[in-house]
Amino acid sequence: MAKRIQFSRTGGPEVLEYADVTPEAPKAGEVRVKNHAVGLNFIDIYFRTGLYPAPGLPSGLGTEGAGVVDAVGEGVTHLKEGDRVAYAQGPLGAYAELHVLPADKVVKLPEAIEFETAAACMLKGLTVQYLLRQTYRLQRGETILFHAAAGGVGSIACQWAKALGVKLIGTVSSQEKADLAMQNGAWATIDYTKENVAERVRELTKGDMVPVVYDSVGRDTWETSLDCLQKRGLMVSFGNSSGPVENVNIGILNQKGALYVTRPSLNGYADTRKRLEAMSNELFEMLESGKLKVDIAQRYPLEKAGEAQEALASRKTTGSTVLVPAMQQDTQATQDAGQSQDAREPVKEAQEGQAAQDAEQSQDQDSRA
Ligand SMILES: NC(=O)c1ccc[n+]([C@@H]2O[C@H](COP(=O)([O-])OP(=O)(O)OC[C@H]3O[C@@H](n4cnc5c(N)ncnc54)[C@H](OP(=O)(O)O)[C@@H]3O)[C@@H](O)[C@H]2O)c1
């Protein structure tokens, strides 16, 4: 048996169950990955709550992870058992010890990149790759607005923009998050819970405003984002952290300056194996060159996925969060001896909690015997 997180109905974090499942064998064109680390993403919350419908229930959850190929289906030629790999797409079910997915969604991981780093940045990093390099191909010297700059996607965007010579104005909800965004290479920050964002963008750009806004916050920032754009600027609406943008009168794009709007997704860009490989190679080069450092600010044991999601949804996290399957936790604890105490704490607490539970259970069993 292997462990996975699944849900049989949509709702709050309490719908997530830590279940035993019989490991599936990969079918033709598929591989099975033994996950060393799993990435936590806002999209996982959309599936859990039902904002995005899961294909069927009960359903697994999660699409981002890194580990070792543990079984290979017929016809797969580019991967073999034992390969170190990472992935960010495919069927829901990455929140698991073992995950079966189409081999063409899986890329080999360079030796120099650790599993946790890959799990923390495959989805978020590939997203930043397409946002900054494809949706709007940024040029050195440009100034942009990027919302939620201290989050998982945002922390990577700050560093990538800096590497491109782009001035990123990042929005954040606290001084601590502002400091973090600046450390990651943001050019300026705005606290969108206190300041008038469009006015501040006008000041910072000396009246020019910006050619592109990257907005993953959605409902709460939609109109403000349009107000920050230059004439004929591009609004990139790529997420719903505050809720989806609804009931838009398209005429607003004309009123605010003949604007363009796009609603992209990773699957819309990494839609072929060739494109996925090219995007991943660029991400891996950023990591290997040291221009991009992934901040794993939170780490949770897999069974605490609900707690991790709650922290993400309630704006308590910064940077990336990874979930560590039980079979990897001991190894990880040793490897991460140099990491900050805060980041290690949730795993350690859960291990202690599990030890206490195990002790209780064995006491129960003893008393029944
Ligand atoms: N389209 C795509 O291809 C794609 C791919 C990956 C991610 N995304 C989207 O990108 C966004 C970021 O994803 P992530 O996983 O890296 O998450 P994240 O940015 O680490 O977390 C979301 C952040 O959004 C901000 N936020 C503003 N209003 C919020 C609200 N009402 N509730 C919760 N958070 C709010 C918070 O930062 P502050 O406290 O600083 O406001 C929060 O930390 C998500 O919307 C996700 O869906 C889209």
List descriptors.
6-stranded parallel β-sheet, binds NADP nicotinamide-adenine-dinucleotide phosphate, Rossmann fold, single chain, Quinone Oxidoreductase, Chain A, domain 1, 369 residues, 7-stranded mixed β-sheet, alpha/beta, disordered C terminus
Give a written overview of the molecule:
This protein is α/β, with parallel strands linked by helices. It has 2 domains: 2-121 and 272-361, Quinone Oxidoreductase, Chain A, domain 1; 140-263, 3-Layer(aba) Sandwich (Rossmann fold). The protein has helices at 42-49, 115-135, 152-163, 175-183, 197-204, 222-227, 251-255, 266-269, 273-288, 305-313, 326-335, 341-368, and strands at residues 2-7, 16-21, 30-39, 59-60, 65-72, 84-87, 98-102, 106-108, 143-146, 167-172, 188-191, 210-215, 229-237, 260-262, 296-301, 320-324. The strands form 3 sheets. Strands 3, 5, 6, 7, 8, 15 and 16 form a 7-stranded mixed β-sheet that branches. A 6-stranded parallel β-sheet has the order 11-10-9-12-13-14, with helices on both faces. A 3-stranded antiparallel β-sheet has the order 2-1-4, with no helix packed on it. Helix 3 links the parallel strand 9 (143-146) and strand 10 (167-172). Helix 2 crosses helix 3 and helix 2 (115-135) crosses helix 9 (273-288). The longest helix is centred in the C-terminal third of the chain and has 28 residues, at 341-368. The relative contact order is 0.14. NADP nicotinamide-adenine-dinucleotide phosphate binds at residues 41-43, 123-124, 127, 148, 150-154, 172-173, 177, 216-217, 220, 238-242, 264-266, 312-313, 315, 317.
